[in-house]
Write a structure and sequence with these properties.
Elements: H1 4-17, H2 27-30, H3 40-48, E1 53-54, E2 58-61, E3 65-66, E4 72-78, E5 82-89, E6 96-101, E7 108-114, E8 120-128, E9 133-142
Parallel strand pairs: 1-9, 3-9
Antiparallel strand pairs: 2-4, 4-7, 5-6, 5-8, 8-9
Length: about 150
């Protein structure tokens, strides 16, 4: 029978030996024009340098009417083997919301809360392993109050 101290020591050793191949790209540093673009098309161009193709392989869920523009729940799912996922919106002065690096073999099933100061469209871009861009969009009506909700 193994005592608690020995068990914990083995667990810590296993954690220390676990591979740490997690790497993320700092898109604010490598693609700064993405974060100052005032429209979705310019933001996508600054980030990827290409235009996406609409895809039914992406599920984008958000409320049709958001009562609080300061915390709109958005869920993104896809079976596309993704390299990155980006979220844009056309209601705020800067269109980029977030860009995620997807690790090798990663599953895209993300839920985030975004801010929108007015009604508008949310656009999700999924970059596949070959570099092809796929997109999905959804209109969201923001009730009075916007981000100040």
């Amino acid at each position: 029978m193994m005592n608690r101290r020995k068990f914990l020591g083995l667990g810590l050793a296993a954690v220390a030996l676990a591979p740490t191949a997690v790497s993320a790209i700092d898109f604010r540093k490598t693609k700064p024009d993405t974060w100052t673009a005032d429209d979705v098309e310019s933001g996508i161009e600054a980030l990827y340098g290409a235009k996406p193709t609409a895809s039914d392989k992406i599920t984008l869920k958000a409320p049709k009417v958001a009562s609080n523009g300061g915390a709109i729940p958005v869920t993104i799912r896809t079976d596309i083997e993704a390299k990155s996922v980006a979220i844009f919106q056309d209601a705020n002065p800067e269109s980029a919301v977030a860009v995620f690096t997807v690790p090798e073999g990663g599953i895209v099933d993300y839920s985030v809360k975004i801010k929108m100061k007015a009604s508008g469209k949310v656009t999700v871009i999924v970059e596949d392993k070959a570099g092809k861009l796929h997109s999905a969009e959804q209109e969201i009506e923001v009730a009075l109050g916007g981000c100040e909700g």
